[in-house]
């Protein structure tokens, strides 16, 4: 009884290619759609912050509505046109730039693939929330857009994109190597 028993084997496991899938157009890792939505939301938050500031500015221009143009103005109650009111307007303008700038930087740098943009998004949420506290409810849409955009930066597809960008940035291009010998003049084959 010579039964030729063969060992049952599975086919070989395919080799795992741990390469970054790149866009043929740009050569960068492919950006997920979630990242596009997050970047757009954060840029829309910048626009919404600018609209809220424009609304405040419109109310501040008219003396009758100046005392209620922003919470900060209502709390301190400065006289319109005096140095304190002008200082408060400069502070509100600076707060606008800071809050809108944080959201814009977070969205732009997330699009560029920098992992720290997640934390910049959280900082932007805090700054836009603080801006809401000192201005008016016109900032609520900006805060909502910032919260949504920052939350999307923590989703797994965006984390994979950041990881792929880190790997692409870690690649070093081949350095230039000088040729051993440089031939000047007519090549021998053309003599």
UniProtKB/TrEMBL annotation:
Lineage: superkingdom: Bacteria
UniProt keyword Transmembrane helix present: yes
Keywords, ordered alphabetically: Membrane, Transmembrane, Transmembrane helix
Transmembrane segments: 33-54, 90-109, 116-134, 140-162
Listed name of the protein: Uncharacterized protein
Source species: Tessaracoccus lacteus
